[in-house]
Amino acid sequence: LTALTQRPGLLDHGDPARPGVAAAAGRTAAIADFIRDGLRRGERCLCATSPAGTRRIRLALAAVGVDAEAERRWGGLEFLGRRPPKPASKTLAPRAVAERLDLARGRALADGFSGLRSVLQMDWLLGPRIDPETMAAWEVALAGLPADGGLRLLCDPGPGGALRQLAPAPDPRAASAAADMIGDLTSSIAHQIKQPLAAVATNADAALRWLDRDPPNLEEARRGLERIARDGRRAAAAVDAIRALFAGTGEGRRLLDLAQVARETTFAVGGALRDHEVSLNWAISPSLAPVSGDREQLQQCLLNLISNAVEAMAPTPEQHRRLDISARMDEAGCVLLELTDTGPGLDPRVADTLFDAFVTTKPDGAGLGLAICRKIAESHGGQLSAGSASDAGARFSLRLPAARAA
Amino acid sequence: MTDPPHKVFVVDDDVAIREAIGSLLFSVGLDVELFASPHAFLKSKPPEGPACLILDIRLPGLSGLDLQKQLARSNLDLPIVFITAHGDIPMTVAAMKGGAVEFLTKPFRDQELLDAVQAGIARDRAHRRRQVEITNVRDRYANLTAREREVLRLVAAGKLNKQIAGALGVSEITVKVHRAQMMRKMEAPCLIDLVRMVDLLAPVGSSR
């Protein structure tokens, strides 16, 4: 078993040297944390726990803010079973359980959840006395589940045992969601502009060939030039359409709490924050006025800023990686949201051009992220600016006018 | 040129690209047919002479790579020049593994496209010649008697008349008569030509 706990992807959160009531309470709290994290990430949570265990977990969940109302809102929590299954039954073979969990994960994904986590109370499932061999067989089977399928397991071996979290490889979907969004966007922009430009180039080549013929075919060359003119205008129209996309038309605007939008965004990228060991610090003023805005555009803007911050903090030692998010009213009566990271700060040489399109400091970046962010801010009548925080790190300030009371 | 005219098919859903490529190919004297979708292309008449297909990877309905597979299955395997606005490596590898002549990223140089098309047509011409030859050789082989086929197999395997006579249990004179008859029917002027024909017959020859 000690060998098993050292397997990559298998984290041991327990402390076998501290048995007893305190350990049991700590275990229950850890289970509640595990479930709450899952619910916040939009995952389905299944608990195979005894009735007593279920009661303890529900109490612990309430203590960390997951009450009946939150449970209903997130909708992914389920406690399985009232009677313990017969330990000898075939359906409880480790392989069968692993397969069923894998199936449940597939169903959860199909139902729109972002993954599945499951709490297995081993002493209830297998009977109070578990021999190490049985336990090892279970862990081997569970460790063999697909690592990238958004599945997380917490095994509670019962009194005296240590909680074992089966943490498969970090879920790449959450971490790359922001990158994907920008990637899709740039790829589609590139396609829309490249198509007519490619046609222009080929038409020009063809027209030259028609002119080079002896005698030159002026009629065909003329047609080529007409097509060039048409396609050139089409490329320009594509650029206009893309600008309009980010300018926003005012439709889809509603009164929003900017801090709430920021919270939702951090939930969406919670996986990335966690995987990079970035801790979040909130400082939200209680007297925040609402803003009038497009929720999705603002989320996209914040998503870009948060992803940038996480990337920027890659060289920072893990214990110092911190993202401070503050929101307050500024002197001018605008809502000011500031994101401050503990990365190396902004290079003064790029600070001026930071928001220009196609300017990037990343080897594979298209340089559109911050340009789009600023566009979104401006289309909301606001501003996005960047600076360096006094204690190193970069600070991005999003200022949006407060909405007039309706 | 005794060949029927060369033909180039262009399948791209973007009318601007389609017309531009059409004009370019037309300017160098190629016969061009343009299609907006794979389905329109599949409904068209198959070419009589050497041809080549210019295919966009990203197409409505059926992707370029899917069309490539479908053509290969339907024995209508035209040489394909792929064009794309943004090709990634896996896509390129899949296209080239499927036998594509070339994989061009838009915007491409006109000469690149014309070279690829010429290479495709040359490949198709060679392919067609070989197909005609295979059909002819098969027809001739079908006219041989059972005994002549046996002699052909042994002659092609490099056996001497004496050995063939022994293997078949007939006289050497009889072998010579069958052999002359077989060479005449196969229209093979010499042994080397016969061996080459047997290679073309490979699927037939190896099963007997």
Description:
The complex is a heterodimer of chains A (406) and B (208). By secondary structure, chain A is an alpha/beta fold. In chain A, 49% of the residues lie in helices and 17% in strands. Chain A is extended and about 95 Å long. Chain B is of the alpha/beta class and 208 residues long. In chain B, strand 3, helix 3 and strand 4 (80-84) form a beta-alpha-beta unit. The longest helix of chain B has 33 residues, at 110-142.
Task: List its traits.
A: alpha/beta, 6-stranded mixed beta sheet, extended, B: 208 residues, alpha/beta, 5-stranded parallel beta sheet
Chain-wise SSE layout:
The complex is a heterodimer of chains A (406) and B (208).
Chain A: H1 2-5, E1 10-12, H2 21-40, E2 44-48, H3 51-63, H4 68-74, E3 77-80, H5 94-110, E4 116-121, H6 122-126, H7 132-143, E5 151-156, E6 164-166, H8 172-212, H9 218-247, E7 254-256, H10 258-268, H11 270-275, E8 279-284, E9 291-293, H12 295-312, E10 322-329, E11 334-341, H13 348-351, H14 369-379, E12 383-388, E13 394-401
Parallel strand pairs in A: 2-3, 2-4, 4-5, 8-10
Antiparallel strand pairs in A: 1-6, 5-6, 7-9, 10-11, 11-13, 12-13
Helix pairs in contact in A: 2-3, 5-7, 8-9, 10-12, 12-14
Chain B: E1 7-11, H1 15-27, E2 31-35, H2 38-43, E3 51-56, H3 64-73, E4 80-84, H4 89-97, E5 102-105, H5 110-142, H6 146-156, H7 161-168, H8 172-185, H9 191-200, H10 202-207
Parallel strand pairs in B: 1-2, 1-3, 3-4, 4-5
The most extensive interface, with participating residues per chain, is:
A-B, 27 and 20 residues
Structural class of chain A: alpha/beta
SS content category of chain B: alpha/beta
Largest sheet of chain B: 5 strands, parallel
Biggest pleated sheet of chain A: 6 strands, mixed
Estimate the helix proportion of chain B, in percent: 55-70%
Count of extended strands of chain B: 5
Number of strands of chain A: 13
Order of helices and strands of chain A: HEHEHHEHEHHEEHHEHHEEHEEHHEE
Strand fraction of chain A equals 15-25%
Low-pLDDT segments, ≥5 res of chain B? 204-208
Order of helices and strands of chain B: EHEHEHEHEHHHHHH
Low-confidence stretches of chain A: 1-19, 169-175, 362-367
Shape field of chain A = extended
Please tell me the overall pLDDT of chain A: 76
Taking all residues together, what is the mean pLDDT of chain B? 86
Order of strands in the sheet with most strands of chain A:
1-6-5-4-2-3
